[in-house]
Amino acid sequence: MFSGSETLHEHYEPLLEHLSALPPEEIQRRKQAADLSFLNQGITFTVYGRDEGTERIFPYDLLPRIITSAEWATVERGLTQRITALNLFLKDIYNEGRILKDGIVPRELVYSCPQFRRQMCGLQVPRNVYIAVCGTDLIRLENGDFAVLEDNLRVPSGVSYMLTNRRVMKRIFPQLFRSYNVRPIEHYTQVLLSTLRSLSPEGRPEPNIVLLSPGVFNSAYFEHAYLARQMGIELVEGRDLVVHDNVCYMRTTSGLRRVDVIYRRVDDDFIDPLAFRSDSMLGVAGLFNAYRAGNVTLSNAFGTGVADDKAIYAYVPDIIRYYLSEEPVLNNIETYLCAREKDRQHVLANLDKLVVKAVGESGGYGMLIGPHSTAKERKDFADRINANPRNYIAQPTISFSRAPCLIGDELEPRHVDLRPYVLYGDKVTIVPGGLTRVALTRGSLVVNSSQGGGSKDTWVLS
Predict the structure, then answer these.
(1) CA 270, CA 284: separation in Å to the nearest integer?
(2) How far, in whole angstroms, is CA 139 from its chain's centroid?
(3) Torsion angle, alpha carbons of 162, 224, 200, 128, to 10
(4) Per-residue DSSP letters for 385-415?
(5) Which of 45, 182, 368, 389 minimizes the number of CB atoms within 10 Å of its CB?
(6) Which helix (DSSP H) or strand (DSSP E) does residue 230 occupy?
(7) Phi/psi of residue 407, each to 5°?
């Protein structure tokens, strides 16, 4: 909201004026109305490993985050460039492997990635689109520029919170919303549906599209049900699908119905017990063969996780230069790969200053924040790094931007990031906004909901 300690950003002036004119009890009344709206809609997420219960109402902050149209234009260009290059990278490593032969990305780094799927080698993917849905995490640095913290390419979540945040915000602050010229995001689900439709197998002009969920015990089940309802497609689990003669069908009360496109929210490992983990109860036996035969499209494709491996992340600027002959519009955060001897020694000597992450983890798990860690935690991470250096990367502790949040009756600064959602089918589409995640705990740098984070509405101005 402020540049430095005194200067109010111009685009935040109407918001501050509006809030200043409201009595504290009215602000609290609206906060309670927002919480009640989330409760009534069942907008929850699941926290695993906590004794006090797993199901939580998603924490929501009333104050919107506001982004100017000029800033958003840069974000849009950068994300379009990034998803285009990562799709080309996936196509290349599963086919010719030019980038590996040319030594731009180390071959052993790709082949040692747990998400690399040898079954995908030489397989033709519909429209060459490996990543149709992407949620890229951005942070704003001290100089005001956005930078990429990580890419989420496997089963990116959180878009339902972006959409419901907006709906609640329009109801709680209707006059304020009208006074700003905010670009709409409500069309996201229809753009997602069009993207999935564009990837359907040849000769299927009216494709049957389903959303495959692990089921009600998954942390993002609310989102699965919400998106399926908004798109007007069936929400299914593995037991609802069956494969005959390399064609996928859905069980219905009137018999089997062919399925053409699956928007999957199930990880590779669990999606087909014949091709991947044989002990999975969530998947569909034979689904990979139906996919390989070209009779069903899965979005995102199998094996996309290799491109959001946190070690591969360090090479994305080089990947952009290699395939597009362009400089990255959005920069990476400086990253040390513990698989490199020199980097590893630097990381081990500076564990108290760095953020260390396990390359395959998400949700804020498997992470050490050096300045906030104990000597015992640093010793534990040093042992883990020495035992399996390929599995860890480290980054400087970034002082990323803060936004005002309503904490009790006070406005207090909290660290925020931004996850815009990118769709890639016939063209790249990015709805103007995203999920602004907030580290609600004072001083915390971890914005994940599973670690005590919340969210706020993101307003991109016209």
Answers:
(1) 9
(2) 13
(3) 60
(4) HHH-GGGEEEEE-----EEEEEETTEEEEEE
(5) 389
(6) helix 221-231
(7) -110, 105
3-state secondary structure of 290: helix
Per-residue pLDDT of the chain (462 residues; tens, 9 = 90+): 888 767 888 999 999 898 888 888 898 898 888 888 887 777 766 555 555 555 666 788 889 999 999 999 999 999 999 999 999 999 999 999 999 999 999 999 999 999 999 999 999 999 999 999 999 999 999 888 999 999 999 888 889 999 999 999 999 989 888 889 999 999 999 999 999 999 999 888 899 999 999 999 888 898 999 999 999 999 999 999 999 999 999 999 999 999 999 999 999 999 999 999 999 999 999 999 999 999 999 999 999 999 989 999 999 999 999 999 999 999 999 999 999 999 999 999 999 999 999 987 665 567 898 888 899 999 999 999 999 999 999 999 888 889 999 888 788 899 999 999 999 999 999 999 999 999 888 877 777 766 667 899 999 999
Cα–chain-centroid distance for residue 362?
A: 10
Cα–Cα distance, 334 to 239 (Å, whole number): 44
**Residues 404, 413 contacting (CB under 8 angstroms):** yes
Instruction: Give the tokens for residue 187.
Output: 């069309």
Burial 245-275 (b: 16+ CB within 10 A, else e): ebbbbbeeeeeeeebbbbbbbbbbbbbbbeb
**Residue recorded with tokens 């580290």:** 439
C-alpha dihedral over 108, 109, 115, 121, to 10 degrees? -50
Compute the distance between CA of residue 99 and CA of residue 304 in angstroms, rounded to an integer. 16
Residue whose token pair is 């904490």: 407
Q: What span, in angstroms and rounded, lies between the C-alpha atoms of 309 and 331? A: 17
Reading the block at residue 11, the tokens are 């685009």
Closest listed residue to residue 161, CA positions, set 220, 214, 215: 220
Can you tell me the distance from the alpha carbon of 428 to that of 424, in angstroms, rounded to the nearest whole number? 5
Q: Residue 339: which of 30, 12, 107, 122 has the closest Cα?
A: 107
Q: Residue 135 is encoded by which pair of tokens?
A: 């949620």
In whole angstroms, give the CA distance from residue 65 to residue 237: 36
Residues 270, 274, 278, 284, CA torsion sign: positive
